[in-house]
C-alpha cells in the first residue's frame, strides 16, 4: 500500500512538471488561418459524376478589410487519391468583419473507388502576415 501511494505521488509530480511548458516564442497577436475540422468525407459520389461538399475555413481575428488566401492540396500519407478526382477554389476571400467561410470542394469520379476511401489534404498556403493553422483531410468514396 505504501508503494502505491509513492507511485501515485511520483506520477502526479511528473504530470505537473511536464505540463509546465511555456510558449514565449509564440506570437499571440498573429493571425492564424486554417480549417476548423481535421477531416471530412464526400460520400456516394455518383459513378462518372460529381458531388460537392463543404469545409469551414477560419481566421483567428476579424479584419476591416477583405483578405484573400491561397489554398493548396497535399497528397495523403495513406490511400492518396488522384488529383483529377477533386476540385477546389485556388483562392478564397474572407470578407471584412467575418471570421469564417464555407469552402466548396467538388469530388469528381474519374477513378474514385466504390470499395475503398481515398484521401487528399487541403491546406492554406503559407504567406506573409499570418500563420497557417489546421489542414483538412478529405476522403472520397463512391
Structural class: mainly beta
For the record, what CATH class applies?
A: Mainly Beta
* Strand line-up of the largest beta sheet: 5-7-3-1-9
Helix content: 10-25%
Alpha-carbon Rg, integer:
21 Å
The average pLDDT is 88
Distance N to C terminus: 58 Å
Largest sheet: 5 strands, mixed
Architecture (CATH level 2) name: Sandwich
Number of strands: 10
Helix count equals 1
CATH topology: Immunoglobulin-like
Poorly predicted runs are 20-26
Characterize the overall form: flat
Number of domains: 1
Instruction: Identify the CATH homologous superfamily.
Output: CalX-beta domain
Give the SSE string. Answer: HEEEEEEEEEE
β-sheet strand percentage = 35-45%
Task: Give a quick precis of the structure.
The protein is mainly beta and 142 residues long. The protein is built from 1 helix and 10 strands, in the order αββββββββββ. It comes from Aequorivita xiaoshiensis.
Structural summary, described in words:
This is Calx-beta domain-containing protein. It comes from Aequorivita xiaoshiensis. With 142 residues, the chain is mainly beta. It has one domain: Immunoglobulin-like, CATH 2.60.40.2030. It contains 1 helix and 10 strands; from the N terminus they run αββββββββββ. It has a 5-stranded mixed beta sheet, with no helix packed on it. Strands 2-10-8-4-6 form a 5-stranded mixed beta sheet, with no helix packed on it. The longest helix is centred in the N-terminal third of the chain and has 17 residues.
Amino acid at each position: 500500500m505504501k508503494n502505491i501511494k509513492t507511485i501515485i505521488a511520483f506520477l502526479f509530480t511528473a504530470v505537473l512538471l511536464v505540463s509546465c511548458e511555456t510558449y514565449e516564442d509564440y506570437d499571440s497577436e498573429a493571425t492564424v488561418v486554417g480549417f476548423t475540422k481535421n477531416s471530412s468525407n464526400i460520400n456516394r459520389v455518383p459513378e462518372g459524376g460529381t458531388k460537392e461538399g463543404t469545409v469551414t475555413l477560419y481566421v483567428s481575428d476579424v479584419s476591416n478589410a477583405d483578405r484573400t488566401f491561397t489554398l493548396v492540396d497535399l497528397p495523403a500519407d495513406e490511400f492518396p487519391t488522384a488529383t483529377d478526382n477533386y476540385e477546389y477554389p485556388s483562392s478564397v476571400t474572407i470578407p471584412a468583419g467575418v471570421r469564417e467561410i464555407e469552402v466548396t470542394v467538388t469530388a469528381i469520379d474519374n477513378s474514385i473507388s466504390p470499395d475503398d476511401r481515398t484521401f487528399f489534404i487541403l491546406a492554406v498556403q503559407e504567406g506573409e502576415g499570418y500563420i497557417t493553422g489546421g489542414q483538412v483531410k478529405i476522403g472520397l468514396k463512391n
